[in-house]
Structure formats: C-alpha cells, structure tokens
Amino acid sequence: MKALIGLFFFLTFQINAQPPQISTNNAPLNGTFNQHIEVNMDSLQIREEINPSDDANEKLEKRNLEKDVNDYKTIRTKTKSNAYARSPSEGAQQLLDKNVQEIQSIAPESIEAEILYYDAGNYNADRASALQSSLEKDAENEEALTLWVANSLVLGDTIQAFATLKKMEALNYIPRDVLCYAKDLYASVPKNTILITHGKWDTYGFVYEQMYGSENQQSLNVSLDLLQSPQYRKLLKRKGLMLPEGKRIDVEYFKALCEINNDRQFAFSMTIPKEYLVSFAKQMIPNGLVFLYPSSDEVDQVVTNNESYLDSFLFMDCGQTENNSLVGLNANYLPMLMLLEQQYENDKGSNVKLSQVQKHREKLKRRIDKSPK
C-alpha cells in the first residue's frame, strides 16, 4: 500500500505541479537542457580586439570585460538549469574557464575576476583566497557573500555559514519567502534523516533553520550542488556517508548515492527535479515538503505527520508580498495535501478535515496560477 501511495502521489504531482528548480545564482532559469548540455555559441558576444594605438583602449577594455562577464553568466545560468546534472559538461567547463582567463587578462585584480575564478572551480575551497580578496574589496557584495556561505559549508564551518547568512538577511539579500518556506521544510525532516537538497535556497534555508533550531540537529543535509566540491565530499565521508566513485554530480550519481546507503533514511527536497526521482517513485511517500525514501512502514504515522502540518505549516503565508520568482514553491505543498485528501475521501467521518485540505489546495492553486509562466 505504501508503495502505491508514493507512486500515485509522485506521478500526479509531477504531471500537475512539477517542483521548481532553485538556481544557485540570481539569474532566472530558462530553456530545457539534456544531460550533455551544449552552449549555443551564437548567443555569446563577439570580443573586440584592442588596438594598442587606439585612444579608446580603456573603453574597449571595459566593454570586453563586460562582455566576458556576461558570457560567463550566460553559460553558468544554462548549466545550472540542467535538470539532469549539477556539474557542467566538459565543454561548458572549458568555456567557463576560458572566460575567466580572459577576464583575468583584462582586470586581474577586479572583483569580477576573483568571484568568477572561485565560481568556475565549482566550490573548490582551494580557490577561497580569491573569494576572500573580493570580500575585502567589497564586504557587502551579494554574489561574493552567497559563495562564501557555500565555501563555509563545504569546509564544515556551519558557524561561519550561519554568520554570513545572517549578514545576507540583514542586507535583504535573502528573499523573505525563502525563510518562510525553510521553516516548513525544516519541520518536514524527521530526526536522523539525510536531507538531499538541490540548489542554493533550499540548502541555505535548511541550514539557517537548523542553526536556529535545537530539535533536529541530528539530520544531515547533503547538497547536490555542493557535492561538486572535493572538500565537501571528504567532509561527508567523515560523517559516515558512503559516496559513489566519480566527480560528476548528475542523475546517475544521485541514484548510486542512495543505493550504496540503502540502510539510511532519506528525505528528498521537493525542489529536486523529477529526473532524479523517477527511479525511486514506487518507494517514496510525501511527508510535508519532502519525499521520504524508502517510504516508512508506518504509513499511518506519515498521515498523522501531514495532518499536524495542516495546523503548524506557514504555507508560504508570511505576511509579506510574495517574490514572483518563488511563487512556484507553493506547488511543493500539494503532494502532502493530495495524500490527506485521498485518505479523508475514504473516511466518511472526516468531512471537516477534508474541507480544510481543500481550502489549502485552492489557496495554493490561486497563487500558482498567478506565477510567471
């Protein structure tokens, strides 16, 4: 029964309300990409050659710097949007490295050169000195602070990560909707469970709440994005997690990770693209804002958990205007509600509870319908 419930709700959810991917940068997601993503070179600008005798050298250098930075971010946005992998393809990585080299040749000590040099390393902490230098130049640089949180996490320095997140919050760099959602995500994760997150905001939000809270310090967060870091992989091994061979973080790596740790309880964040989860559909069940895998033998307990969330969850109702780019997070509450709705429809004495579930669904649906397409 538990397998059928998990499969039914997983498939229904993916068809009607696929959970949004959360990017690890500030650029919007666009396009559909396969596992071996190729970057369209026609979308990249033509770099102007600088003539040493030209009085406009300085202006040309500035334009070329802007072009290289924009090209880098175009490539990075596309690789982050890949629903099959967190790691860039070999070709995309070469383009990222080439753009960084060109930026360094124009303005080696610029903040852009330092930040993008670190970013191109995919959270390799060996490059952290460049990131630190950028923060010495501009202690409130949003992009540098965001990456500094990641660098702290791959080294296991949660105190530094939390302090940086607090600073970002004070500077209004963290959308309030993210913190609102994070409270419900944190409450969804059972103790002694491995929470798998996908991108920036689901990871940062959970870490933020975990550092504030005291009830769920035992749960281990594993970020698919940060798994690109060699230091992070070593950290997780020290914490007792078995990791597959290989450095490319993609759907196959995720599957192998779960299989070799088959004695552990996982909680999959609903921000993870469906391409990662299809293999586990028959053994998952929604518990708040996560899919538990393998699904609990105590289905009644999961139902009870979801019932309690009806009253305790914020449901993205945080008393402020919603961030339009995050409206899609509302869809991640639907599997839980659908599970309860099915349960109550089979129980003639649960009309009041059924009505409560349906009210939540209608409210969420109105928000989702207003979200940017």
Write the layout of secondary structure elements.
Elements: H1 2-16, H2 57-80, H3 90-106, H4 111-120, H5 128-137, H6 142-154, H7 158-170, H8 176-188, E1 194-197, H9 200-212, E2 220-223, H10 230-238, H11 251-260, E3 266-269, H12 274-277, E4 285-287, E5 290-293, H13 299-312, H14 334-345, H15 351-370
Helix pairs in contact: 1-14, 2-3, 3-4, 4-5, 5-6, 6-7, 7-9, 8-9, 14-15
Total individual domains: 2
Low-confidence stretches: 6-38
| Spatial extent as radius of gyration | 22 Å
Distance between the termini: 36 Å
Mean pLDDT: 86
> How much helicity do the residues have?
40-55%
Instruction: Summarize the helix and strand pattern as letters.
Output: HHHHHHHHEHEHHEHEEHHH
Content-based structural category: mainly alpha
| Number of strand elements | 5
Question: Can you offer a commentary on this structure?
Answer:
With 373 residues, this protein is mainly α. It folds into two domains: 2-19 and 174-370, no CATH class; 58-139, no CATH class. The protein has helices at 2-16, 57-80, 90-106, 111-120, 128-137, 142-154, 158-170, 176-188, 200-212, 230-238, 251-260, 274-277, 299-312, 334-345, 351-370; strands at residues 194-197, 220-223, 266-269, 285-287, 290-293. Strands 2-1-3-5-4 form a five-stranded mixed β-sheet. α1 (2-16) packs across α14 and α3 packs antiparallel against α4. Mean pLDDT is 86; it is low at 6-38.
